[in-house]
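Hi everyone,

Forwarding the result from last night's run.
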Amino acid sequence: MARRRPGDSGRRGRGPARGPRQRDDGHRQERPERTAHRDHYDDEIGDRQDLPEVEAGDSANRLFGLHPVKALLTTNPGRVSRLHLLDQNRSHGIGELVTLAKSAKIPFSHVDRMRLDQMADTTKHQGVVADVAPVAYETLDDVLARCEGRPDALVMLLDQVEDPRNLGAILRTAEACGAHGVIIPKRRAAPMTSLVAKVSAGACFHLPPARVENLAQAMKTLQQAGFWLVGLDGEADIPLSRVKMVGPTVLVMGGEGKGLRPLVKRNCDVVARIPLSGQTPSLNVSVAAAMSLYEVCSQRGWGIDP
């Protein structure tokens, strides 16, 4: 290995190191000092600040991704306490978030990519992380109170759905279809995390899941309240389209790979299947939930305001 000479910077093949620019008159011209984007953001709420180190585990109370953050800023900005934006990002999407943040007087800061990755606990944050109020789980009583007096009450009950992406996708579809509750067990179920919030596109803030200690007991309580419990099972004899679901209905979905547990299946009023015509033997639980919700909405008159 060649020994480096004294004063040798070690640069090879890249031309001479650049120094300060020289003006034509021979005087040195210093480069302008970079600012924290003060030309684009208000100093009062948009100036870059030194933020404390963030541990990966703190990401549960954060929402990331352009569309989920924009949806929350548009529908419920009070849940957002601060935005963290990727330094040097000038995309149209980020500009829209800044406009919404300014309108709601929400402070925002610029951080480097490493810090943003750390905040989101992922690299797939699309240049924005929002500090949000934590999602408080609802109770079965909360769901029943929301459904009281509604002949079209619609509830999802998830039996051990443990993948946060599936939980987020189901929350998103359920909220979009006008469901009044999503019930999950306290154990062996995906917890609320920033990933669930992102996949749900912020729907979890409008329809938080309700946790119950005993799923079978919750099913009996729902039946006593007048709900018709419809379980989904690929081996069932009855196609879902033949099940009448115009009154108060609970769609009961099984977990990934396992499906409905025997006790949960026995507590359903009817168990039906989604007919499949192709070679694929089964559906992902979030896809099956979406198709089941669409069947309910179709029976009730899709597009008609409640």
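The chain has ten helices and 13 strands.

Cheers,
N.
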